Amino acid sequence: MKILHVDTSITGPASVSRTLSAEVVRAQRLLHPDAEVTVRDLASEPIGHLSGAHLLAAQGTVPEQEAVRNDLSAGRGALEEFLAADTVVVGAPMYNFTIPSQLKAWIDRLAVPGATFRYTENGPVGLAGRKKVIVASSRGGFYGPGTAAEALDHQETYLRAIFSFMGVTDLTIVRAEGVALGEEARAKAIDGARSEIAGLAA
C-alpha cells in the first residue's frame, strides 16, 4: 500500500488544507498501518511550469539547458510517484477561485498521453483509474452547490474534472469553507471536515 501526500498551501503551519491533509493521511494509516507514505510539498519544492522547452522535449528534442533537463527529471519523478500510489491525498486551498499555481504545475506533469490517459476514436480514455484520490479542500468563503458564489468555484470543479479525465472514479473531497469569516466560522468548518475524515477511517 502506497500513499502519496501532496501539499500546496503557501501559508505553512497556519494552513487549513495542510492540517486537514495531514489528518486524512493519519486516517488512511489507521486503515493501512503498513502503508508507505511519500510526501511532496509543492510550496517548498515547486515543479516548474510548462514552457516551450518542455514541449520540444516531449517531441524528442534534447534540451540544451541543464535547468530544463533537471526540471524534466523532476516532472518524471512526480508522474512516477503518482502512478505508483494506491491513494493520493492532496491539500488544495482555493486561491482566487481556483487551485494554487503550484498544484496546476504538478497536474500538468501528470496529464501525459500514454501514462494517465490516451486518445481513441471514441474520445479520451483515462488510464489512472486504479487509485483513490482524497482532496482536502479549504476556502475562505462559501462556494459549494447552492451558494450564491457557486459559479466562481474553479477549484473543486477543476480537480474533479482533471482526475476524472485521468480515469479516477474514486475521488473524495473533504471540504472546510468559510474559514476566513471569523474564528467561529473557521473552527466550525474545520470541525465539520474532521468529522468527514473520521468517517473515512470508520
UniProtKB/TrEMBL annotation:
FMN binds at residues 9, 15-17, 94-97, 138-141. Its EC number is 1.6.5.-, 1.7.1.17. Residues 1-197 form the Flavodoxin-like fold domain. It comes from the Bacteria. It catalyses: 2 a quinone + NADH + H(+) = 2 a 1,4-benzosemiquinone + NAD(+); N,N-dimethyl-1,4-phenylenediamine + anthranilate + 2 NAD(+) = 2-(4-dimethylaminophenyl)diazenylbenzoate + 2 NADH + 2 H(+). Pfam families: Flavodoxin_2. Its cofactor is FMN. Binds 1 FMN per subunit. Gene3D superfamilies: 3.40.50.360. InterPro entries: Flavodoxin_fold, Flavoprotein-like_sf, FMN-dep_NADH:Q_OxRdtase_AzoR1, NADH:quinone_OxRdtase_FMN_depd. GO terms for molecular function: electron transfer activity; FMN binding; oxidoreductase activity, acting on NAD(P)H as acceptor; oxidoreductase activity, acting on NAD(P)H, quinone or similar compound as acceptor. The keyword Ligase does not apply. Keywords: Flavoprotein, FMN, NAD, Oxidoreductase. Signal peptide: none annotated. Belongs to the azoreductase type 1 family. Also exhibits azoreductase activity. Catalyzes the reductive cleavage of the azo bond in aromatic azo compounds to the corresponding amines. Homodimer. This is FMN dependent NADH:quinone oxidoreductase. It comes from Bradyrhizobium commune. The gene is azoR.
